[in-house]
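Notebook p. 47: complex prediction with BIS(adenosine)-5'-pentaphosphate.
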Amino acid sequence: SNIILLGPPGAGKGTQARYLVESRNMVQLSTGDMLRDAQASGSEMGKRVAEVIARGELVTDRIVIGLIREKIEEGAEGGFIFDGFPRTLAQADALAELLRETGQKLDAVIEMQVDDSALVARITGRSTCGDCGEVYHDETKPWPADGKCANCDGTTQKRRPDDNEESLRTRLMEYYKKTSPLIGYYYAKGSLQRLDGLASIEEVRKNLGWIMGD
Ligand code: AP5
Ligand code: ZN
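Predicted complex, structure tokens below:
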């Protein structure tokens, strides 16, 4: 099935997407990861978006849709998890059109609900493994004391430049202004499901599985 994980920065989209990739052979399409990869590649586009991301603003629809188009055209046997996309009504329309053109459909849009107050702590405590992408949190899931990633034994712990309080404020503003209208958009289409994102990682994982028919 093809699903969208919708929610503010720090809602747990990336954390849960990784579980779905492991357990269901789904393909995670994270536009945030794709943009960060473009940045790392040193391309012109990458350089241009780096600053926008660091400030916490949204990258243009044209760039983001360009990145996602090819992937959707390739298709995915186990289905796609759209993580951090779409983020604007224009992106949602483009996604609908791309899926229609390629004979695929959207099965569910899952809104992960988390209070703003919890997001600051989640974002400022986050780190990831530079080798495998495993997501950690200084308090709830600390980087192992032996310095090695619990998933792959890698030794590079990374933090994102936009994971500071000031950029987070902008990211939240962007979310409420441009992304939250998608809640109504998908509600009207009958595809919206809501999930309590404040529950523990394990609990959210279970509830998500339940929504997906476990
Ligand atoms: P993106 O990479 O998509 O970032 P985001 O939406 O801000 O989401 P995050 O990755 O911050 O949060 P998450 O929900 O994945 O949380 P996570 O699981 O890591 O986008 C970055 C930037 O790229 C944007 O600002 C924009 O500039 C640009 N961009 C990307 N897509 C775009 C688009 N479509 N259009 C335009 N621009 C775009 O969890 C967070 C932390 O909480 C972790 O430490 C984790 O361990 C912890 N945690 C997770 N779940 C729980 C739980 N249940 N309980 C306790 N702790 C938890
Ligand atoms: Zn790792």
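Notes: The pocket of zinc ion (ligand 2) is lined by residues 129, 131-132, 134, 149, 151-152, 154 (CB under 6 Å). The mean pLDDT is 95.
Next step: compare against the earlier run before touching the bench.
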